[in-house]
Specification:
Layout: H1 4-14, H2 21-27, H3 31-36, H4 46-67, H5 72-83, H6 85-94, H7 105-108, H8 112-134, H9 136-146, H10 151-157, H11 163-175, E1 180-187, E2 194-201, E3 204-211, H12 214-230
Antiparallel strand pairs: 1-2, 2-3
Length: 231
């Protein structure tokens, strides 16, 4: 791909002209691409991702601290919802990152889940590239425009809560009951137990989940119940 494509992207989607265009190209370069093109590609995006992750967390933390007078625990949960893989991967998808990704042939055929992770990583790497090339304010503006604007919807949907808390809030508000979790099955040897847990409202089984611990299985059951409620 012609590197001018990346400069066009920077101008139209990021609103800047990169001084060091190689930084932006690197932000879209996956490790697998470097392994497959050792003669032409020298660096992948993991170092930029590391830097961008730190900048992202600082900007989001600063925003929440300045705008909301809430306890630390609530602010932490809100921040986690904003910077989780699903949130930043979706932001990258909205910006049409995918055609710019430099991936190996194998990674191009990867699963949707793997691609979502790659998009999220590239979003953080682009933040890192912006920070190095344009400074903190440019990186902050990018995060505000493409990620912080989703915060109102996150609050409205309650998606910042863990699944068990979210399910409890929904069921209590709609039905006046508290969900109860019961172990339905235990399989496997003691050192490799697999638990199956059901979440009940009264006697009604609302969701079922499995996991290597009761807690993990409860979370999976709550997620299943929430999916059913959303239909």
């Amino acid at each position: 791909m012609d590197f001018s494509t990346y400069q066009d992207f920077a101008k139209t989607k990021l609103g800047v002209t990169f001084n060091q265009l190689d930084l932006l190209v690197t932000a879209f370069t996956h490790r697998s691409y470097v392994n497959e093109h050792k003669k032409t590609a020298r660096e992948h995006n993991e170092r930029l991702e590391f830097l961008g992750d730190a900048v992202l967390e600082l900007v989001v933390t600063e925003y929440l601290y300045a705008n909301f007078d809430e306890p630390e625990g609530v602010l932490t949960n809100w921040r986690s919802a904003l910077v989780r893989t699903e949130s930043i991967g979706a932001a990258a998808a909205r910006l049409d990152f995918e055609p710019l990704l430099r991936l190996s042939r194998g990674e191009k055929r990867g699963t949707a889940r793997a691609r979502a992770q790659i998009l999220a990583n590239s979003f953080e790497a682009v933040i890192g590239a912006l920070y190095l090339d344009q400074g903190y304010d440019a990186a902050k503006a990018f995060i505000e425009k493409n990620l912080l604007v989703t915060f109102e919807e996150i609050l409205k949907s309650g998606s910042w809560m863990d699944p068990k808390s979210r399910l409890q809030e929904v069921v209590q508000s709609q039905e006046g009951h508290t969900p109860q979790y019961r172990v339905l099955e235990e399989t496997g040897p003691d050192h490799e137990k697999v638990f199956t847990v059901g979440v009940f409202v009264g006697s009604d089984l609302r969701g079922r989940g499995t996991g290597p611990s009761k807690q993990n299985a409860q979370v999976a059951a709550a997620e299943a119940a929430l999916r059913k409620l959303a239909k």
